[in-house]
Amino acid sequence: MIAEQFDFIIIGTGPAGFSAAMTAAKCGKKVLVVEKEGSLGGVCVNTGTFPSKTLREAVLLLTGHLRRQVFEEDSCVIGTTDISMDKLKRRLQYVRLKEHAIIDHQLLRNGVKLVRGAAAFLDDHTVTIETIGEDGTLTARGEYIIIATGSKPRNPPEVPFDDRRIFDSRSILDMPTIPKNMIILGGGVIGSEYATIFAALGVKVTLLDRGERLLKFIDHEITDELQHHFPNGNVEYIANCGNFKIGVEGELAQITLENGDSYSAETLFFALGREANVGGLCLENTGVKIGDGYYITVNDLYQTSVDHIYAVGDVVGWPSLAATSIIQGRLAALNAMQKRSEAFPKIFPVGIYTIPEISYVGMTEEEAREKDYKFVVGRCSYEELPRGQISGECEGMLKMLVHRDTREILGVHIFGGGATEIVHIALMALCHNAKIDLFIENIFNFPTYSEALKIAALSAFNQIERDQCLCP
Ligand SMILES: Cc1cc2nc3c(=O)[nH]c(=O)nc-3n(C[C@H](O)[C@H](O)[C@H](O)COP(=O)(O)OP(=O)(O)OC[C@H]3O[C@@H](n4cnc5c(N)ncnc54)[C@H](O)[C@@H]3O)c2cc1C
Ligand SMILES: NC(=O)c1ccc[n+]([C@@H]2O[C@H](COP(=O)([O-])OP(=O)(O)OC[C@H]3O[C@@H](n4cnc5c(N)ncnc54)[C@H](O)[C@@H]3O)[C@@H](O)[C@H]2O)c1
Q1: pLDDT > 50? residue 79
Q2: Closest CA to 343 of 301, 397, 393
Q3: Alpha-carbon span 325 to 321, nearest angstrom
Q4: Exposed (0-12), middle (13-18) or buried (19+): which is 51, by Cβ within 10 Å?
Q5: Which atom of ligand 2 sits closest to the CA of residue 242?
Q6: Mean pLDDT in the chain?
């Protein structure tokens, strides 16, 4: 069989693969994209980012979560309204289908060839594709190949997943009904986001983690705020859970901890991390090396150990975000074409879509202390923020870490409405080594959530001035 020749073969249509394909196609390259699933967009569109964020918005709308706070209405949801899993699933599917069509159309109009099927390497330049349709097995040769195969939930074999009582992040949204109670194992991003979403829906959630606190990597004051404001008080957090055994007892899922404590619920959601999709790629037919945790090893240009094979997105490990995968895909394609030299940004924001949401950029207070920085913390509470009062979002805060001598902003951490949007203003400030004066001297729309940045900057300014007066 003669293999068709391409400038680029890209394996996977998640954010990493899609962005690589578009970058190469816009530069006039002949591009083949291979996708093994029937639907385009990867975990991002089908089981991860899109569905979880769509569920969050749907739950906020249908339960009237904010409205209930503003008008002090009762919080009980299940059984009192027409919210059902079927209704939620219809909304998730509508958004997925819209996105599939957008991706399909954008690839088509940019001349990218799309083949649906599983790709595997024959050698360093050739892949075979077991197509889903009637085309059988195809072979293609690429001058460059970009692996963007993503990740899947890390599911240990001893956990009896049955997609009826015990679920992972792929299957949780296929639950037939909304349970009255749920155990979530894992206080990482997935566990914390879903815990607050289901809690807002009226589900009693028991959230277990082996760590002392949720979301260990974020500023501790922000996690404390999250734990104090769990929606409807419906989340019980159990820290330091230790080893566990998971089973089923009648119709209930059950988890027993090493200290003997046992918890049962209609649903158990296992959310303990993810692992790279490298199985089935036949990487042994290439010189591509796999490193710690089975992630593909890459250099700063996203080249694997074979110069013309690149890898991007979740398959290379941290930070494993849709946000960062998009830029990695672009960088790999640009580097292969030797177009221009851009580097992965040193500073980037993280958005966590709990209810209320969290976002941050830059150093945490704990990091600033460890590094012995001289800093002050400027704060703004949403209770005192006009926009917070008006919108009924009084649960929230913004803290700004500021260097005491230079007045440069070191980090911004936000918990509350608009957090994942306003963080980008802070990002721009950090990228330009801005001082708090930038926020103090410029005019912001009023009333806005962004004003929290101005108030926190003023609060930091006052502390610096006061300290300078005390110690001239
Ligand atoms: C529940 C959840 C919520 C999330 N929320 C967010 C969020 O809010 N914000 C954020 O930035 N990130 C979020 N993420 C992370 C984000 O979804 C991932 O970082 C992102 O999808 C990774 O993109 P990717 O292109 O590397 O891989 P993926 O999106 O996983 O896509 C990989 C694609 O490759 C295909 N593939 C695999 N092997 C082959 C093969 N051999 N041949 C052909 N095709 C193959 C797969 O079918 C898949 O379509 C979330 C993840 C989860 C699980
Ligand atoms: N908003 C976002 O950007 C977003 C949202 C969801 C997911 N994601 C991506 O998905 C990835 C995976 O998320 P995740 O939450 O599954 O993984 P994670 O690695 O973030 O969290 C896993 C959690 O499980 C805990 N844990 C691990 N082993 C344990 C054990 N044996 N017993 C008890 N607790 C244990 C860890 O302490 C950790 O808190 C994230 O790293 C992130 O990249 C991003």
Answers
A1: no
A2: 301
A3: 6
A4: buried
A5: 32
A6: 95
Q: Do 166-272 and 356-470 come out as alike in CATH topology?
A: no
pLDDT at 348: 98
CB of 41 sitting under 6 A from ligand 2? no
Ligand 1 mean position, distance from CA 162 (Å): 23
**Binding-site positions:** 53, 149-151, 186-193, 273, 314
CB 186 within 8 A of CB 272: yes
List Cα–Cα distances, 214 to 48, 227, 239, in angstroms: 20, 8, 8
pLDDT category of residue 453 using cuts at 50, 70 and 90: very high
- How far does residue 45's CA lie from ligand 1's centre (Å)? 8
Interval 385-433: pLDDT, tens: 999 989 988 899 999 999 999 999 999 999 999 999 999 999 999 999 9
Burial grade of 408 (CB within 10 A; 0-12, 13-18, 19 or more): middle
Domain 166-272 CATH superfamily: FAD/NAD(P)-binding domain (3.50.50.60)
Is the distance from the beta carbon of residue 314 to the nearest atom of ligand 2 less than 6 Å? Answer: no
Give the mean pLDDT of 96-108. 98
* CATH number of 4-153+275-336, picked from 1.10.10.650, 3.10.450.50, 3.50.50.60, 3.40.50.920: 3.50.50.60
Architecture of the 356-470 domain: 2-Layer Sandwich (3.30)
Binding-site residues from annotation for NAD(+): 186-193, 273
Residue range 329-373, pLDDT digits in tens:
999 999 999 987 789 999 999 999 999 999 999 999 999 999 999
Centre of ligand 2 from the C-alpha of residue 31, in Å: 34
Q: Which residue intervals of 146-213 are DSSP H helices?
A: 189-200
Q: Which ligand is nearest to the CA of 117?
A: 1
Query: Residue 364, Cβ neighbours under 10 Å: how many?
Result: 20
**CA distance between the termini of the chain:** 81
Contact 1, 29 (CB under 8 A): no
Domain ranges of the chain: 4-153+275-336, 166-272, 356-470
- Using the atom order of ligand 2, give the atom closest to the CA of residue 186: 24
What CA–CA distance (Å, rounded) separates 83 from 86? 8
Q: Among the residues of 151-307, which ranges form H helices?
A: 189-200, 220-228
Average pLDDT over residues 445-472: 92
